[in-house]
What does this fold into?
Amino acid sequence: MGLYRILVVDDEESQREMLGGFLQKEGFSVSLADSGETALKLCQDEFFEVALIDLKMPGMDGIELLSNLKEINPEIQVIVITAHGSIETAVEAMRRGAFHYVNKPVDLEELKINVKKALENQKVLSENRFLKEQLEEKYKDLKIIGESKAIQEVLSTVTRVAKTDSTVLIRGESGTGKELVARAIHALGDRAFQKFISLSCAAIPETLLESELFGYEKGAFTGATRRKEGRFELADAGTLFLDEIGDLSLETQVKLLRVIETQEFERLGGKETIKVNVRIISATNQDLEKKIKEKSFREDLYYRLNVVSIFIPPLRERKGDILPLVEHFIQKYKQKTGKNIQGITTEAKDILLSYPWPGNIRELENAIERAIVLGRGEAIDKSDLAYLSFQKTEQFPSDFSLRELEKSQILKVLEKTGRNLTQAAELLGIHRNTLRLKMKEYGIK
It folds into this structure.
């Protein structure tokens, strides 16, 4: 208890000495001040957990001192001493942030109880601040950038749903930032310091997906030389993010539905029932309602996953977010590369604002990183974005659909890269596997 520091502020020497002496005997480190001015000087040089201050003092009174102390140290717990008959002043002090008050003559046992309660409260505040700082550091790259009304609505929903354990279905085209939103929900929720495990259902072959989700026992199949935990087990007490949920087979959908409903499963080749506590967030760029009508997605699973739905509009529908995102990426890659990039020219901004961004934010980030890495000037110029500028001069028919636009862009990039899928995926700002799926979807060979 000697580590706890208490400041006693009273203009009456006898009262000050009596209270200080009592608290010292109780094992606290005590400092004394005969005025508000002296107390403020002490608080600027030292950290105090608790301040015990008399409300009635000449010069700076207790109310004014309370406000000043809170400005210096918002976590300090202030107990005010008030004379009988001045309860209204004590209530005003509480309204301004005092922890408690005691009446004169001070009951020392009551004071001791209040000091201990104040210390407990201060400890909680300190721990919360520490956790908040840790969280901000851990998730400093999770800031969702955007000034559009649509993104502000996304942020509002994220904040409201984060503190619950409800399933969330995030919808949006590839590259709109669905995983970023999922991570933000996790970071703001009660599971923030537990694991966030992600799995792209499109990136794993169907034959391996079940073992990835639920794990397997040694000998479950050829090559299973040891037991392996699945994503559900790894995410126990945390969050499991299932990206491209629409790519699951009906067979896997049945097993996923059971786990969501019961929070238990068996590893592949095993008999032991594994119980977990996992929050599920899923994402898709597909029309699940259409897949339900086509009998390729289970309606009961859809409703289980879609308790809360978040839609992230494509970047072309929120042009106002492009330049704030550009500034964010410039700062990010300026720091990563060590290049002294001062900004972006007006001509380059025009190109970025007129381009349709079929790969959305991922493609935009790729374009800025590429411009910074390959650029030679102190600002990103139109020459750094020349490969995007065709869109400014090429006109599409008014009835040109998004699918046709996306297919056209993929074909152009494939032609530009000599059909090198890795380079094409990088230019489009999408994963190589996603590019393969898009090519298959559009019949591009």
User: Anything to note?
Assistant: The first strand starts at residue 5 and ends at 9. Residues 165 and 279 are 6 Å apart (CA to CA). Residues 147-311 form a domain with the Rossmann fold fold (CATH 3.40.50.300). The chain has three domains: 5-136, 147-311, 316-441.
